[in-house]
């Protein structure tokens, strides 16, 4: 096996594949990067058994300046190989399997020889039916992941909550995540997928890595499903993830249908105020911010304190406020993450009672995006 390639083009694809490679895996060969070299392309594969990423570098793209002398396959230690490639002196590099699995990497006057592994021992990627395909706009999928993955649980005691619940039915795509303290739900219309029906739970960690790979040059992402795997195709890159097994809780009943107090306010303005209040609340043992709504003078007051440091009070004028007087306490970190997911939008916050969950929705198209936060009892 021998090829020469533009180093920058190779590093770009290597960085993507490395997202799936972990040094902590119990299967030693999965700490390696698999290279499959054909006359017209190189395929790089990385996996940690939960996530697998495969990307192809075609010789037909002139930017790659790929020249293949001998086809073949090898598995190389990912960490060492990556560090070597990134520190090579010239714009091009040559990789050559010289003796058994010994591999020589040369660039200019620099030459490294590292020990590879038998590619026959590398696990095969899952077979996924290509007829079951949904196409999503890359920017929409990236935004959807960012808005929902913040609410997945980090606790392995309830593994099902560490994923995002994806439901596709009747031309609507619904994504829901909850850690039992907060919930995020996003709905997208997909009329072209009117006949598709899916109900799967994808690990939040997988979606976070996928989101980082979706760039401006990926206008569309294809999503394909099998019984226990999902495949996302982004151009020349395939991203596989296992699915979580089990039944996701029915979250629709958690969202209040009515409210007694509503506040409309700019998400960035409220986020900045919560950020300031949390400077002191983070020094307190319970990390709570108090939020008071006064319908009489149409103001809201945000209060944070730490017995050891001091306290902060800030009053805001929302664009609209109606309903009953209310005082409610919540975790400011949950609130900040929820507000960040709305970007620059105006939002409507709906409260029922001081100890009942409250919702945040954008004032436009509020039925398609909901953040829900459970308050904290402070007495």
What does this structure look like?
- With 379 residues, the chain is an alpha+beta fold.
- It has 3 domains: 2-121, Roll (DNA Polymerase III, Chain A, domain 2); 133-242, DNA Polymerase III, Chain A, domain 2 (Roll); 255-373, Proliferating Cell Nuclear Antigen (Box).
- Helix content is 18%, strand content 42%.
- The protein contains 6 helices and 26 strands.
- The protein has helices at residues 7-18, 78-87, 138-148, 204-213, 267-281, 332-340; strands at residues 2-6, 32-37, 41-47, 51-58, 67-70, 72-77, 92-99, 102-107, 110-115, 133-137, 163-169, 172-178, 182-189, 198-203, 220-225, 229-234, 237-242, 261-266, 289-294, 299-306, 310-316, 320-323, 326-330, 346-351, 358-362, 369-373.
- The strands form 4 sheets. A 9-stranded antiparallel beta sheet has the order 14-11-12-13-26-25-24-18-22.
- A hairpin with a 3-residue loop joins strand 2 (32-37) and strand 3 (41-47).
- Helix 5 (267-281) runs antiparallel to helix 6 (332-340).
- The radius of gyration is 25 Å and the shape is elongated.
- The protein starts with a strand and ends in a 6-residue tail after the last strand.
- The model has no long low-confidence stretch (mean pLDDT 93).
- This is Beta sliding clamp.
- It comes from Lactiplantibacillus plantarum WJL.
- Residues 1-126 form the DNA polymerase III beta sliding clamp N-terminal domain.
- Residues 136-250 form the DNA polymerase III beta sliding clamp central domain.
- Residues 253-377 form the DNA polymerase III beta sliding clamp C-terminal domain.
């Amino acid at each position: 096996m021998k090829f020469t390639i533009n180093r920058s083009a190779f590093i770009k694809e290597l960085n993507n594949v490395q997202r799936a490679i972990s040094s902590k895996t119990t299967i030693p060969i999965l700490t390696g990067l698999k290279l499959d070299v054909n006359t017209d392309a190189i395929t790089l594969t990385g996996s940690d058994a939960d996530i697998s990423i495969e990307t192809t570098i075609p010789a037909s793209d002139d930017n790659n300046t790929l020249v293949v002398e001998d086809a073949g396959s090898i598995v190389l230690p990912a960490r060492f190989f990556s560090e070597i490639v990134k520190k090579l002196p010239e714009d091009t590099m040559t990789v050559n399997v010289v003796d058994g699995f010994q591999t020589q990497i040369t660039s200019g006057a620099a030459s490294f020889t590292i020990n590879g592994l038998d590619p026959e021992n590398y696990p095969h990627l899952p077979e996924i039916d290509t007829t079951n395909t949904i196409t999503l706009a890359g920017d929409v999928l990236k935004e959807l992941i960012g808005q929902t993955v913040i609410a997945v649980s980090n606790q392995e005691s309830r593994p099902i909550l560490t994923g995002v619940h994806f439901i596709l039915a009747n031309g609507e795509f619904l994504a829901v995540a909850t850690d039992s303290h907060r919930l995020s739900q996003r709905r997208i219309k997909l009329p072209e997928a009117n006949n598709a029906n899916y109900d799967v739970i994808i690990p939040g960690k997988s979606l976070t890595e996928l989101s980082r790979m979706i760039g401006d040059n990926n206008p569309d992402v294809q999503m394909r499903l099998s019984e226990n795997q999902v495949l996302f195709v982004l151009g020349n890159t395939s991203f596989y993830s296992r699915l979580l097994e089990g039944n996701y809780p029915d979250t629709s009943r958690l969202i209040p249908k009515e409210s007694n107090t509503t506040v409309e306010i700019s998400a960035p303005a409220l986020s900045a105020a919560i950020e300031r209040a949390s400077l002191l609340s983070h020094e307190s043992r319970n990390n709570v911010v108090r939020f008071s709504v006064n319908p009489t003078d149409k103001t809201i007051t945000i209060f944070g304190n730490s017995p050891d440091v001091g306290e902060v009070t800030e009053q805001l004028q929302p664009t609209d406020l109606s309903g009953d007087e209310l005082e409610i306490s919540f975790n400011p970190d949950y609130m900040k993450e929820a507000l960040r997911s709305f970007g620059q939008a105006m939002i409507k916050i709906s409260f029922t009672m001081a100890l009942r969950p409250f919702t945040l929705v954008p004032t436009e198209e509020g039925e398609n995006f909901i953040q829900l936060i459970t308050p904290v009892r402070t007495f």
